[in-house]
Structure formats: C-alpha cells, structure tokens
C-alpha cells in the first residue's frame, strides 16, 4: 500500500507551497464484520483534483462518507486543517466540517425553489433567525454572494428558474455553486457526473478542475470513467477491495493500472 503524496507542480520562485488541507490516515471501516476499508491513507491538497477510482464496492463512497461524518470510522484519523475530527463535538465539529461540501450523483436540490434559493441554502449553517428557515428572509448580501456563485458556474441567467426545470448538467452546476456559497474549501463529489450525458459530464469535470485551480479548492471526485480522470484530475486514489492499490500522479493511471483496478473477483484470482 502506498501513501498518497499529491504531486506538487513545479513551484514558481517565491510561490507558496500547495496547502495540504485534509489528511486521512489508516482509515478502516467494517460493515457487519466485513472490512470495506482497510488502512486507507491519502491527502487532499488545495488547488488540485484527486480522482477516486475502483470497481463497484471497492469503498470509494464509504471513504467520502467517513470524511463527511455520514459514516463512523472503526479506526484511523481524519485531520481537517490540522484538526483531528474525532476530537471535536457539537458546534466545534459543525464549524470545522462546514468547510467541507459534498455533491452527489443524485443531485439534492429543492425542485420547487429557484436556482438562486438553492444556492443560498449553502449558507444555512452560518445563518440565524428567520433567514435560517425561509428564503423570504435571506439577506441581500447572501443573495449577491449566491448570484456571484451562479455566475461562477455559468448559470447567472438561470438564477430565477425553478431547480426542477434545469437539465441534469445545470442542476449539478447549481449544486457546485451551493458548495461555493457554503464557502467550502474541500469539495467531495460522489459520482458527480454518472447521471450526465458525455458533454455535460465533461463540462462539470472541467468546472471542478477550474474551481480547484482558481478558487484554490481541494476536490475529491469519485468517478467511474478513468478517461475523465485522465483529462481532469491531478492524481488518483485507486481502490481494490477497500485497500489502496495505487495512489499518486495521474500519469501512473496507464492501461495496465486501469485494468488492474477494474479486474473482477480480484480476491478470488
Ligand atoms: N451502510 C452499509 N451497510 C452495509 N454495507 C455497506 C454499507 N455501505 C456500504 N456497504 C458496503 O461496503 C462496500 C463498499 O461500498 P461503497 O459504496 O463504498 O463502494 P463504492 O466503491 O463506492 O461502490 P460503487 O462504485 O458501486 O458506488 C460494498 O460492499 C457495500 O455493499
């Protein structure tokens, strides 16, 4: 097993080094006595995209869910901005976790609300009073921030459209804008393009890579298409049966590595 060391691009003289924002060490998780993650290590770095690849059931989604706190870990450590998450409780945990946003294959927008209102919802964690339960009371500054986020994903002209009327690709971009409005610095994307047509998938991946570079986000994306990883990711975590088979630069994702990651019944081979 290799510990992921994200590639640092050649640094310009005087440029700050890429900031490692999330460190996962020895992540271990079982369900009903069956180990599905076994000592997984990797680091997410601001400004870069890591693709998580592997066959169905290899543990990709569970890894992201453990980071989000949607699953508990059996062992291991997750540090966000240097803070070990397991040491935090209550509001301190909520505050630290608010810098991590997740987007899913099944896009979770409120269909009867406008794109703008859905994007504003990214800020709910830092709102209080009436604004925290009704879009009618969203403050003007928040709407401006949400509008800027929509413009950033190329959808300013659809701001007042009901989310339920958007195409899949547009809806996923609204979900990305909501993460921007959350002011997240880590964006976890669990199969963000699996439900999209090839062109929309390409556009969403381009957007994620651009946001990583230009907004200095750390992006982790579970993908089922190695070719999308090759085009848009900087590095790869490749899982087989809950163990890291490959972690490192995207250039290492050659045909033989792809074949290895997707060979069925490896344990039985
Ligand atoms: N809540 C759960 N209870 C029991 N088993 C689970 C649970 N969640 C995941 N698993 C099992 O853990 C293993 C890893 O699942 P996970 O969803 O992380 O894989 P994945 O690599 O994301 O797969 P896919 O590509 O199919 O989405 C699978 O065998 C799955 O059945």
UniProtKB/TrEMBL annotation:
It comes from the Bacteria. The keyword Acyltransferase does not apply. The keyword Transcription regulation does not apply. GO terms for molecular function: ATP binding. InterPro entries: AAA+_ATPase, ABC_transporter-like_ATP-bd, ABC_transporter-like_CS, MetN_ABC_transporter-like, P-loop_NTPase. Residues 22-266 form the ABC transporter domain. Keywords: ATP-binding, Cell membrane, Membrane, Nucleotide-binding, Translocase, Transport. SMART domains: AAA (SM00382). This is ATP-binding cassette domain-containing protein.
